[in-house]
Amino acid sequence: MPGKNLLTDPSKVLILGAGNFGSCLADHLGDSQHEVYLWAREETVVKHFNQYHRNPNYLQDHHFSTNIKAVGPEMPGRDLINEMDVVLFAIPTQFLRDTLSRLDLHLNRENAPLLIFVNKGIEIGTHALTLEIIADTCGADIAKAATFISGPSFAKEIVKRQPTSVSVASFTESEAEKAALLFHQPHFRCYTGNDPIGIELSGALKNVYAIAAGAADGLGFENNTRASKSSFPYCSEVLT
């Protein structure tokens, strides 16, 4: 990747996870003329996608960019990963540790691809954040350079090219800037920061507050109650 301008130069991008969000981001990057490889764990999805440029399980009505090639169901090998400028993880947090272990991403930071994570949540059992899972499986240097993208971004609206804004964060500022350049489009704005832990926690805890607000609404309470439950800082109190 050295010397490559991610805003103007086509990049090779591997996206792990052909769900709603992985598929819509693949389409976004393919539409930006990047060469995208979308890994799916089901052979039927791989074959269907490559033949029809449609995902049989998600966003079924959308015709995806022809710059996307589906790969799988075998895990990508080291040779393919070494060809990539970017590797993006769009798989559930509960499966991330196993996936990273199988990929064996103990890479030399001098020539490693840009690593982007868009998964949300906290690992069941360990209560580990994604950043901690990365450090456990790939080492502290990889975790320090990992980049996280989060924000109000529904897949069905992204594929419609509706205006969207996201936060991009990494402990390594240059990595966050690269990811922002990669995704930047007039309809897709990226705002960089250096607090990946904050992004991770916000992405996980927002669902707790949403449930609390929904429960208040279901009980017939109105704006005051919903606002107090959504803004209260302690989750244990929110759920009381």
TrEMBL record:
InterPro entries: 6-PGluconate_DH-like_C_sf (IPR008927), 6PGD_dom2 (IPR013328), G3P_DH_NAD-dep (IPR006168), G3P_DH_NAD-dep_C (IPR006109), G3P_DH_NAD-dep_N (IPR011128), NAD(P)-bd_dom_sf (IPR036291)
Coiled-coil segments: none
Enzyme Commission code: 1.1.1.8
Reactions catalysed according to its record: sn-glycerol 3-phosphate + NAD(+) = dihydroxyacetone phosphate + NADH + H(+)
Record's GO cellular component terms: cytosol
Sequence ranges assigned to domain Glycerol-3-phosphate dehydrogenase NAD-dependent C-terminal in this UniProt record: 195-228
Keyword match Cytoplasm: no
Residue span, Glycerol-3-phosphate dehydrogenase NAD-dependent N-terminal domain: 12-173
Keyword Flavoprotein: no
Keyword annotations of the record: NAD, Oxidoreductase
GO biological process: carbohydrate metabolic process; glycerol-3-phosphate catabolic process
UniProt cross-references to PANTHER family, sorted A to Z: GLYCEROL-3-PHOSPHATE DEHYDROGENASE, GLYCEROL-3-PHOSPHATE DEHYDROGENASE [NAD(+)] 2, CHLOROPLASTIC
Name of protein: Glycerol-3-phosphate dehydrogenase [NAD(+)]
Organism: Moniliophthora roreri
